[in-house]
Amino acid sequence: MPSSSKLNQALELIKQDESKLLGLRIDERVLSQGDYISKMALDPDALTPTFNFLAPILHWIQPGLQASNDGNKLTTTQPATLEYVSPGPPPFGAPHRYVFLLYEQSPELDVAALAPKGGKDVSRIDRMRYDFDAVMDKVGLGQPVAVNYFTCN
Q1: Per-residue 3-state assignment (H helix, E strand, C coil) for 70-139
Q2: What is the mean pLDDT of residues 116-131?
Q3: d(Cα 91, Cα 11) in Å, to the nearest integer?
């Protein structure tokens, strides 16, 4: 079974330190031009929050984000490693959380190693049970620098 303990730790960051809440201010510094950021989006609640055997579902991987000149916007010229798939929780059960994580990215990061088998054009089924912990260990992104989520049903 895939492990998502690192995802749960990221969610705990919001409770422990509100400065980690998604934004372009990270801790006490503002992102500066040239900083590289990777963004990932996951659903840790599939099939339902209390019966999440399909979780996490990977919704998006976007590497190569860079801060604008004023540090207020992230832009990229790189294609997504995994195209965005919108939320689609089942009509029964409780709302799902959709988690967005930002990581500082080394320019040497092998972004292809982040993608599930099959590359960026994978089906929803192939996005299920994404082994988040194994991938984070493999590529060495470390702790997220910002985390946010919304709920949807």
Answers
A1: CCCCEECCCCCCECCCCCCCCCCCCCEEEEEEEEECCCCCCHHHHCCCCCCCCCHHHHCCCCHHHHHHHH
A2: 76
A3: 25
Least confident range of 56-60, 97-101, 132-136: 132-136
Residues found in the chain: 153
Cα–Cα distance measured from residue 81 to residue 64, given in angstroms and rounded to the nearest whole number: 10
Half-sphere exposure (CA, 13 Å, Cβ side) for 36? 12
Instruction: Reply yes or no: is the peptide bond before residue 7 cis, omega within 30 of 0.
Output: no
Closest residue by Cα to residue 101 from 55, 65, 138, 152: 65
Instruction: Write out pLDDT tens, residues 68-79.
Output: 666 566 778 777
Cβ contact 46:97 at 8 Å: no
